[in-house]
Design a protein that fits this description.
single chain, alpha/beta, Rossmann fold, seven-stranded parallel beta sheet, three-stranded antiparallel beta sheet, 12 helices, 40% helix, globular
C-alpha cells in the first residue's frame, strides 16, 4: 500500500501517475480539506473534487481543476440576477456540490459521501478527506484575517501573507482509514505530493496525531518538491514563501518537513541544493506536463521508496 498526501492540481497530477502504475487497491489518497467552504449555500470541497475529477479522467486538462466537459448556463444566469460569480461553478460541477450538500445535511459524513461519489465516477482507488471534522485555512494579511478562498480565488493571491492558521484543526480527528494505513505493516511508503506545503500539506499535518504517526511510521516518507529553480510550478507557493521570510527553494520545503522525511525528490535544475537537504535525495524531472511525465515521476518515487525500505 502507498499513501499519497495531496492538495489540488499539483498533488492530483502525481496521484494520477501513481494510480496508473499501482493496482487500485494499493493506493490511498488523503486529501486536504482546509480549502473547503460554503458558497451559494453549497458545501464545496475543491481539493477532493480536483483529485476525484483527475483520477476519473474528467478534469479540465487546460487548468487542472473543474470538468473538461463543462457548460456555464448557471453562472450566466446567476450573474444576470446579480448573484456572486467570483467562484465559478460549472453546470456539471454544480450537480456534484448539490448532491454533496444534500447528503451532508442529511447527516452523512464527508468521507462517506466522497467514497460513494468516487465510486459512481468509476474511481477504483480510495480517496479520503484528511478529516470528517471541519478545518478551515485562514490567512493573516495586511488587510487582516481572510478566508482561504477569498485570498486564493476572489483576491487572486494578491494580499501579502503574514501568517496562516487552520481553524478547527486542534479538535479535528484524522480520518481513521488514514491512521490505520500509517500503522499497517503492509504499508510500503508515504508520498507527500508536490502540493503547496503551507495551504495543502500543513493543514493535514496540523491535525493532532498525524505528524507523530508519520514520524513513527515504519514505511519511508518521501516528498516531491513543489519548487523548481526557485519558482512554483503552479499557484502562490513561491510568493507565500517570500512573504513569510523564507527562501523559495526546494531546500526550504525540505526543511519544513525535516522531522518526517526519509527521502526527497527534487528537480534536476536544483542539483546544487542536495548538500543542504537532510534526507536521501533523488534527482528527477518533476515538471509533469504529459501523462508519461506523471507515470515516470510516480515510478521514480516508488523506486526511491523501495531503496529506502531496503536500507531500513
Amino acid at each position: 500500500m502507498i499513501i499519497a498526501l495531496s492538495g489540488g492540481v499539483g498533488g492530483a497530477k502525481l496521484a494520477l501517475g501513481l494510480s496508473r502504475v499501482l493496482p487500485p487497491e494499493e493506493l490511498l489518497v488523503v486529501v486536504n480539506t482546509g480549502d473547503d467552504f460554503e458558497h451559494l449555500g453549497l458545501s464545496i470541497s475543491p481539493d477532493i473534487d480536483t483529485v476525484a475529477y483527475t483520477l476519473a479522467g474528467l478534469a479540465n486538462r487546460e487548468v487542472g481543476w473543474g470538468r473538461h466537459d463543462e457548460t456555464w448556463s448557471f453562472m450566466e444566469t446567476i450573474e444576470g440576477l446579480g448573484g456572486e460569480t467570483w467562484f465559478r461553478l460549472g453546470d456539471r460541477d454544480l450537480a456534484l456540490h448539490v448532491e454533496r450538500t444534500r447528503r451532508l445535511r442529511r447527516g452523512e459524513s464527508l468521507s462517506a459521501v466522497t467514497e460513494d461519489l468516487c465510486r459512481r465516477m468509476g474511481i477504483l482507488q480510495r480517496i479520503v478527506p484528511m478529516s470528517d471534522d471541519p478545518v478551515r485555512t485562514r490567512l493573516l494579511t495586511e488587510e487582516g484575517w481572510i478566508d482561504f478562498q477569498d485570498y486564493f480565488v476572489r483576491r487572486r493571491c494578491e494580499p501579502v501573507v503574514k501568517e496562516l492558521r487552520f481553524h478547527g484543526a486542534e479538535t479535528a480527528q484524522p480520518h481513521p482509514t488514514f491512521m490505520a494505513a500509517l500503522a499497517d505493516p503492509a504499508l510500503q511508503g508515504v508520498v507527500i505530493c508536490p502540493s503547496n506545503p503551507f495551504i495543502s500539506v500543513e493543514p493535514i499535518l496540523a491535525i493532532p496525531g498525524v505528524r507523530d504517526a508519520l514520524v513513527a511510521c515504519k514505511a519511508p516518507v518521501i516528498a516531491v518538491s513543489p519548487i523548481i529553480a526557485g519558482r512554483a510550478v503552479k499557484g502562490p507557493t513561491a510568493k507565500m514563501m517570500t512573504e513569510l521570510g523564507l527562501d523559495p527553494s526546494a531546500g526550504t520545503v525540505a526543511h519544513r518537513y525535516a522531522d518526517l522525511l526519509d527521502g526527497y525528490v527534487i528537480d534536476n535544475a536544483d542539483m546544487a541544493e542536495v548538500v543542504s537537504i537532510d534526507a536521501r535525495v533523488t534527482l528527477a524531472q518533476t515538471l509533469m506536463t504529459t501523462m508519461e511525465d506523471r507515470e515516470t515521476l510516480a515510478r521514480t518515487v516508488l523506486d526511491a521508496a523501495a531503496v529506502l525500505r531496503r536500507r531500513k
